[in-house]
Amino acid sequence: MKYFIITLFVLLCNFVKAQENRFYDDAFLTIDNMLTNKQAYSFKTAVLSVEEAYYQGKLDTAEVSRKIEFMANFAKKIIENRDLTYEEKDKATVSKYAAIFSVICQETPIIMNNDTLQYKAFSYDFNDVFGHKDLSNLFVSKLVNTQKGNCNSLPYLYKILAEEIGADASLALAPNHIYIKHNIKSIGWYNTELTSGIFPQDAWLMASGFIHLDAIQNGVYMKALTDRESLALCLVDLANAYNRSFPENDGSFALKCAMRALQIHPFLVTALILQAETHKQQYQKLANDPKGKDLISLLNKEYNYIHKIGYRNMPEGMYLEWLVSLRTERKRYEDLRLKQ
Predict the structure, then answer these.
(1) What's the number of domains the chain is made of?
(2) Model pTM score
(3) From which residue to which does the signal peptide run (predicted)?
(4) In the chain, which stretches have pLDDT less than 50?
């Protein structure tokens, strides 16, 4: 009888674990299906599938989508009622970019009946900016519920809104950072920085001191990511969420996500680091196992490669100082061409 109870308990634990893992498996399949064209591409769906997996299916995605739809409709209203002083052939597209920027970064008056209300802009949340205490601080769902976000959730929301109103938006990476890149006829490429609400020159990005020339040449940093490469970024987010949910896992799910992401973007540094760090954790668990020699050899190759392509680690404290510098030295780094 005692053996039966123990067996039943083990089976029950395995069943619960399988149910918990199912949400992550489903999210991986959703993103992978988009990458193989078995499912229609949607950055919003990819992002929310990651967040729903972390919340184990308890995220109210319908409510999050409703709030996103409201913002998208608001952006459309801004486009209808505002005429930009921009006369190039891509004016309609630029108007969409400007409207999304207004929704996220600018207080905007809304006339309802005879009353004028002020739409509140999103703000940067300096509390737990890396999600160390609570991973959900990086989530779009948290952003739309609190109107406070960071360099992960704000550019993600921007890209989602762009797709909701029929525009393209490219994510781009810098050390510990994500921002938006656009290409328009009047000036070519320019940067949109949502954490401070301005358009910084590339000089600001280079000013961090942690962007090596090799990293730019290899597309590690400052590259406009394609939609597929943005999905690869979501796979890394999914692996990080899984590791947070199951800290004692064997690393197989994280490696699956990392390898799939690297198939899409071989120089995606977050995926390369995820892969190396997972192998490092596996090595630490092997202790004196002979297999550890092979793993340490692989680890050395992976870390050497990450350094070779231009990655340099940026301390978190220096990152925050660099981020603040955009506000304190705005005149120095702002792209004045956008004031036109």
Answers:
(1) 1
(2) 0.91
(3) 1-18
(4) 8-16
